[in-house]
Design goal:
Length: 183
């Protein structure tokens, strides 16, 4: 085990940044049970303040927050503490964002919903060995639904524009949007 790994093993400080309060509370409890000293924030501003006050050894940051982009928190953490390990969570994942997250210092990029075990495996993976794949990855239907939701949000919730960009009939899109997310 390297010196950096030893330091991180001793320092179990963790910052959780997510605007989904229910998810944030659940993940906070789960991580505390696993021995982490957890601080939480529900905005980019709160995450940046926590990083500047006392940079944690670990961070789990949602990509899209109400007041901005969670990658700003990852970048600030990497500047303050180069050895910190950050994981980015998102329900709106794409390859370009994942690459940007890694370039800014994130060690992994997980799609929501992620459970505590997936997060811990990503945070504590060492060396060049990637973390184990998730036990229950998202289904193809869920990935499709997430993509449609992402484009819908990027089109400012305009159904006609979203349907045009997805090359889909407007009524078909309306039916998809009216349904619950698949598992």
């Amino acid at each position: 085990m390297s010196t950096v790994d030893e330091l991180l093993a001793a320092d179990r400080t963790l910052l959780l940044v997510d605007d989904d309060k229910t998810f944030l509370t659940r993940l906070e409890r789960a991580m505390q049970k696993r021995g982490f000293d957890v601080r939480i924030a529900d905005t980019v501003a709160g995450g940046l303040a926590a990083v500047s006050e006392a940079p944690p050894a670990y961070a789990v940051v949602d990509l899209r927050l109400e007041d901005g982009n969670g990658l700003d928190v990852v970048a600030a953490l990497h500047q303050k503490r180069g050895d910190a390990r950050a994981v980015v969570l998102t329900g709106y994942g794409n390859i370009a964002t994942a690459v940007t997250a890694v370039k800014l210092g994130a060690v992994d990029y997980l799609s929501k919903p992620a459970d505590a075990e997936d997060v811990i495996n990503a945070l504590l993976a060492t060396g060049n060995k990637p973390p184990e794949p998730p036990e229950n990855p998202m289904s193809a239907d869920r990935v499709r639904w997430e993509h449609i939701q992402r484009v819908y949000e990027l089109c400012d919730r305009n159904v006609s524009e979203t349907a045009r960009r997805l090359n889909m009939h407007r009524r078909t899109l309306q039916r998809i949007l009216a349904k619950r997310a698949p598992k």
